[in-house]
Specification:
561 residues; Porin; 60s Ribosomal Protein L30, Chain: A; twelve-stranded antiparallel beta barrel; 7 helices; 23 strands; 33% strand
Length: 561
């Protein structure tokens, strides 16, 4: 028996998601899960394809989704369509989980369903109840390979028979699905892939439809338009062991597309729609899905009582405090980068594509300005490019992301004409925040790059730097024209060495007789060499010790003389 959708185009549009039934009502076995699409409901995942990426341990991950399926099951008698067994199916999906250890996440999923019965004549295939519960699913996934742009690992899902029987949304035996998950971020496109093996006992509906073990597959993409908005598209399906890739209800495939919004770094909202690619079970001529998923927050900032050893006051939320750069910087019109107190400071932050090290074109003028500053000031012998990340994600992920972004800037400055021996880079991850807070503004401030002047030359010692030789790129080996070095000199407020001298605290005089000791040293320096080497002289005693001392002020004995 074939689906009516194979005969006419109009039937394909209206009855793509059909099942073939031809038995009496009391013979049809309805304890089968015919829900093809279950939303992933995990942060950073596609619509129905999960990502293996792990988040900060012991933070909640999950959300809820509403899904509408139009014509998910159709009833046939003697090869002819009688009508829909289920006209519409509204499903509430919920999921929740947490990263329990490094890279290992445990989660659970569950669904509640409200169904509209089909048309008159299809009563034999009606679900026993219009309100039903799906089976409880428990799963675990592991991020075995986690790089800045790649996550790969296995997963295992187990469905326990806790749902409503004879409803087409639950089964009577436990099901298992081991599989592999891939999340590859190429920059312009993020690719999601799933390959699994759904192990279940073979169940015959007695209606020309056998549901057994399957191979679930999926391929999805996300194309970011900004840090907050991305387009989604994916195709999912199942290949039955019983009727492998044969036409019929056992091999369903469906495509979906939608858009994703990120709200304040707290949640992601997906709106998607889909339709069937064949006549397999559970596919729909129209599918609509709306989901809301939380984005895990970083750990709360410690209170003042917990950091009493720190003397400096804690910054307020969204307050930027970059070392040696606390005062407000004055910007002339058209200037994008300048030297200030041991740093090259930039007017606007460097912008990257979401969760990647790809520099957005809008930030290229700023990097060109940093390169010009480096070549205008030949005294700058060594500049450190330091990348920082916000507290979203794991420490390992943030460290690698901040390192790769600093490396991307390093490469950009070399292409801009800065000699590589004058540059270095490092990633600091999330360990040095400049803003404390869980709002998106604070997190955005912590995702930053700093340019620190680590070593300077005396201006008289910079002539040999301008050799005129081409720069050899350490990334590709290509030769880059070296711009002529400028003649600007670092001011006292810009030179990091002078800044350190100016700001170094003067030693306090703690000895009570310090002034007296200094006076004695000065007097000792005034002695002649003969005086310093001559032995001390002794005063001779008077010849008559009993005689009174002469009084120089006494008048003479004979005033007339």
């Amino acid at each position: 028996m074939r689906h009516a959708a194979l005969y006419t185009t109009s039937t394909l549009l209206l009855a793509v998601p059909s099942l073939a039934f031809g038995q009496e009502a009391d013979e049809i076995y309805r304890s089968l899960d015919t829900q093809l699409v279950g939303p992933a409901l995990m942060p950073g995942a596609a619509i129905a394809i999960d990502s293996p990426r792990a988040w900060r341990p012991l933070t909640f991950q999950g959300g809820a989704a509403w899904q509408l399926e139009r014509m998910p099951l159709e009833y046939f008698e003697n090869g002819e369509s009688v009508g829909a067994a289920i006209t519409t199916r509204n499903t509430l999906h919920v999921a929740g989980g947490t990263t329990v250890y490094k890279g290992i996440t445990a989660y659970g999923r569950w669904a509640a369903v409200i169904m509209d019965p089909g048309v008159e004549g299809a009563e034999n295939a009606y679900p026993e109840s219009n309100l039903a519960l799906g089976d409880l699913a428990i799963g675990v996934k592991a991020d075995l390979i986690q790089a800045n742009n790649l996550a790969f690992g296995p997963h295992l899902d187990v469905w326990f028979p806790t749902g409503t029987k004879d409803s087409w949304v639950a089964e009577e035996k436990t099901r298992y699905m081991p599989g592999l998950l891939l999340d590859l971020d190429t920059g312009p496109v993020e690719i999601f892939s799933r390959l699994g093996l759904l192990i279940r006992s073979e169940s015959n509906s007695n209606a020309d439809f056998i549901l057994g073990s399957e191979v679930p597959v999926g391929l999805g993409v996300a194309v970011p338009f900004s840090d907050r908005v991305a387009a989604l598209a994916e195709a999912t399906g199942r290949m039955s062991f019983v009727e492998f890739l044969k036409p019929g209800a056992e091999n369903p495939f469906e495509a979906k597309a939608g858009v994703r919004w990120k709200i304040g770094g707290v949640a992601q909202v997906d709106l998607a729609a889909g339709t069937a690619l064949d006549n397999g079970y559970g596919t729909s001529d129209i599918r609509a899905l709306l989901s809301v998923v939380n984005i895990p927050r970083p750990a709360a900032a410690p209170t003042a009582a917990e950091v009493v050893e720190v003397e400096a006051p804690k910054p307020k939320a969204a307050e930027v405090i970059v070392p040696d750069q606390k005062e407000e910087i004055q910007w002339e019109e058209g200037v994008l980068a300048q030297v200030h107190r041991g740093h090259i400071v930039i007017k606007d932050p460097i912008q990257f594509e979401f969760a990647t090290a790809n520099i957005l074109p809008v930030s290229q003028p700023t990097l060109d300005a940093v390169a010009r500053v480096m070549n205008d000031y030949p005294q700058i012998e060594h500049l450190l490019i330091e990348g920082h990340a916000s507290e979203e994600g794991t420490y390992e992920y943030n460290y690698k992301l901040s390192s790769s972004r600093a490396n991307a800037i390093y490469e950009s400055l070399i292409r801009g004409g800065v000699r590589p021996e004058r540059l270095s880079y490092r990633g600091m991850g999330e360990t040095v925040p400049v803003a404390l807070g869980t709002d998106e503004e604070s997190l955005a401030l912590n995702r930053r790059v700093e340019f620190k002047i680590m070593k300077v030359r005396d201006f008289l010692d910079v002539a040999n730097q301008d050799t005129g030789e081409a720069i050899v790129s350490p990334m590709t080996g290509e030769e880059i024209s070296a711009p002529k070095m400028g003649e600007k000199q670092l001011s006292a407020d810009a030179n990091p060495i002078l800044v350190e001298v100016q700001t170094a605290p003067k030693p306090e005089e703690t000895s009570p007789d310090a002034a007296e000791f200094r006076t004695a040293l000065e007097e000792a320096e005034e002695l002649t060499p003969e005086e310093e080497t001559a032995p001390p002289t002794e005063t001779a005693p008077p010849e008559n010790p009993e005689a009174p001392p002469e009084n120089p002020e006494a008048p003479p004995e004979n005033p007339e003389e």
